[in-house]
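From the shared-data thread, chain only:
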Amino acid sequence: MLLHTLPDRTGAAAENMALDFLLLQRYPHAAVRFRHYGWRRPAFTFGYSQKIYFVRSQLPPDGNLDLCRRPTGGGLVDHREDWTYALVIPRGHPLEEVPAGQSYRAVHEGLAAALRRQRVSAVAKQCCEPPAEGVTAAATGVCFQRAELYDVINEATGEKIAGAAQKRNKHGLLFQGSVWRPGAGVTMDWDLFRDDFIAELAAALACEKEAVPWPELAEDEVEGLTEQYASPEWNESR
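Structure, as tokens:
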């Protein structure tokens, strides 16, 4: 199986979420697909099952934010200083068939290895202790405030560097992942990190990587799903 690496794109939050989901639902090839993308304006995304009142209580006071509910789980993610990616593993690949913890670990061990090539002291967290005294419930619902099992952390400090959320359906497995740039270090060469991360993923997935153009997705479906993800009905439904 091939690992298709798609061109980098920048979009609004709802558009980015729609494209990630359509890469799971409508991609025209039986291949693993990977993309890195940016944000048109300051953005936050939050997990599919999170309550909107909790999410709003955790946002900064600046009201000019692009906010969107993800199709995956996980916590509230601040994308103002992150490096964001999506990975889709299609139905039938061995890593798609294993429990969520195993696939999460495999992807994050590859990410940690790519960070170490940049001299970042990064490892996948191998044990998960209960929250320390004084850690609030809010901290467990906001990404980068607390590291969970197989998140990528700084080995020396325990500080969280990278996390991800997953969605599995009949088409395969979608990862939506985030690397906190300040945690990785300002001296990072992010273009080189992208190449190293893709190489680590190709090895973990036993795939040959191949750069490909953006797929021809149905324009009306992209627009319709983007509108859905931007709607109050989607974002405030819980």
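Residues 45 and 68 are 5 Å apart (CA to CA).
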